[in-house]
Amino acid sequence: MRRQGAGRWDDTPAPIGDTGYGISWEDTPPAPLDGLDRALARGGAEVWTGVTVRGGESFEDLQLWLATSLSGFCRMTGDPDLPVPVRLPKRSGAESVVLGRSLTCLMTKRREHDEATGTSTWEFGVQSFGADGKSAADTLASAARTWELRDRATPRLTVLPAGTPDSALPAGDVVEKTDCRIVVACPAVTRLLAPPLNGTRHEGVQQVVIIWINGAFGSGKSTLAEGLQQVLTGSVVADPEKIGDLLRRALNGHPGRLRDYQDYPAWRRLTAAYVGEVAEHTGGPVIVPMTVLDPTYAAEVFASLRLSPGLVHLVLHVDPDGLGARIDASEECPGDEARSEAVRAYRRRRASDYAASAAAWMHSDGHVIDTSTLTAGEVLKAALAYLLPDRLATADGVRA
Question: Which pTM was predicted?
Answer without folding.
Answer: 0.55
